[in-house]
Design goal:
The mean pLDDT is 84. The chain is mostly helical. The longest helix has 23 residues, at 38-60. It has a 3-stranded antiparallel beta sheet with strand order 1-3-2, covered by helices on one side. Helix content is 45%, strand content 9%. It is globular and about 70 Å long. The protein has a domain at 14-123: Ribosomal protein L17 (50s Ribosomal Protein L17, Chain: A).
Length: 181
């Protein structure tokens, strides 16, 4: 069985893929944002996030030998000492308070020459919280079950004018404007 064997193959050999990921990660760490194909961006995301996690662990480590160990592991994967130095010296402190999700992918229009799906992958700032999710209610959960015929007969008929001016408190059944002294 092949469960859990997913890899981004990208139509090339293992050596070429490692070099490609190293070059893309180097460019991303230097510039903070790059434009590439969607498949390469999706393959780059876990690769670069592991490197950023190493930088974060090195930043939090107190032992200098441990810091050097993480830096050497990152250099072994990225193959660019200057890009790793930028990450470990300058940008690692930005990601200390962030628990994962260090990169973001935006989809773009297809490339005109070969219609390849394009994307922008960028590093997320440490204090970026993202966008607020909408408060839409699920329609299936919001619907109340339809009452049976007996319960419809037992319900009181309420005039239309009173129904529109009900209070915002769900526990009160008496409208605010229709209260009597």
């Amino acid at each position: 069985m092949r469960h859990g064997k997913h890899r981004f193959l990208l139509g090339c050999t293992k050596e070429h893929r490692e070099a490609l990921m190293a070059n893309l990660a180097s460019a991303l760490l230097r510039h903070g944002k790059i434009e590439t194909t969607l498949a390469k961006a999706k393959a780059l995301r876990p690769f670069v996030e592991k490197i950023i996690t190493m930088a974060k662990k090195a930043h939090l480590a107190e032992d200098s030998a441990q810091k050097l160990h993480y830096r050497r592991l990152a250099i072994a994967r990225v193959k660019d000492e200057d890009a790793v130095a930028i990450l470990f010296n300058d940008r690692a402190s930005e990601f200390v308070k962030r628990n994962g999700g260090y990169s973001r992918i935006y989809k773009l229009l297809p490339r005109t020459s070969d219609a390849a799906k394009m994307a922008i992958i960028e590093l997320v700032l440490g204090d970026d919280v993202g966008y607020a999710k909408s408060k839409k209610r699920n329609v299936a959960k919001a619907r109340k079950p339809t009452p049976s015929k007996k319960s419809k007969q037992q319900q009181k008929v309420v005039p239309d004018a009173v129904e529109t001016e009900t209070s915002t408190i769900p526990d009160q059944s008496v409208p605010e404007t229709a209260t009597t002294e």
